Amino acid sequence: MAATLESSSGPDFGATLARHGIRALSRNSPTTIQVNVGKLCNQACHHCHVDAGPKRTERMTRATAERVIEVLAASPRVTTLDITGGAPELNENFAMLVERARALGRKVIVRCNLTVTLELGMEWLVDFYCRESVELVCSLPCYTADNTDRQRGAGVFDKSIAALKNLNAVGFGRGAMRLDLVYNPIGASLPPPQAELEAQYRDELARNFGIVFGRLLTITNMPISRFANQLRVAGNHSAYTSLLVNHFNPATVEALMCRDLVSVGWDGRLYDCDFNQMLEIPLGGSASTIWDIDDVGELAGARIATGSHCFGCTAGAGSSCGGAIA
Questions:
Q1: For residue 4, what pLDDT band results from cuts at 50, 70 and 90?
Q2: Per CATH, the architecture of 13-314 is what?
């Protein structure tokens, strides 16, 4: 592994930590295994850091998925399996991962784009979510059609609303049946305050569509892959990078998701987070694949590989898979 564990391109995140008197990032004993089961998706969103889409062929095989469950079973401190993609539901091993993780008594989070539940042949999904008591984190970048369709494609907003109504109808968004929404900014800006935007979402969706949900999670667009290319075409990649760097917030560092999470790629390789996975920055510790460990607790104390993209998680109120940090 690199001596500095710092990606060489862009502003130096490690040096910024040092200037604020913060030690280089290291991992606690992980409580979450996040699994990216592949890049196949029924959508091709402008902001997607995975560069997922209908033509992608990368997918997690049965053998890799079964190894994920073996490691999960052998990792007693891990409470959560977080499944993402692409659209994770399009992987043939998705149901197996959910069922076996739930049988082990672990919480399962599914990162759902909503419209996949309306695809031909996917009619079983809503009942499956309900039966397995998964927690849904669903993308809805705005409560208006224009902004959502501009980011995710024509007609996506109407389909997303229809999917949300179906989920509400079986109880998601109420009580213990968790349904959270995710907001990403439309352009090169930081998200607004999460609590204020959540109140707006709650009012607009309830008043216009009768939709209820749990929390709104605001997530900063990362200058990676498709969104990075969009920034370069628009000529504001440098300006956006400067925005993130200039809004570095040291109060976010302690709660960064990489401290308590291990990311597993579709091919079984291990990473410090999903963003590092997309940039192919190897895990900061000694293990490189899920076959190199038995219990992810073995990774506790390891240095976390960082790079200039880490400013995206530490700008303003911070950003993580669980929304704002500070």
A1: very low
A2: Alpha-Beta Barrel (3.20)
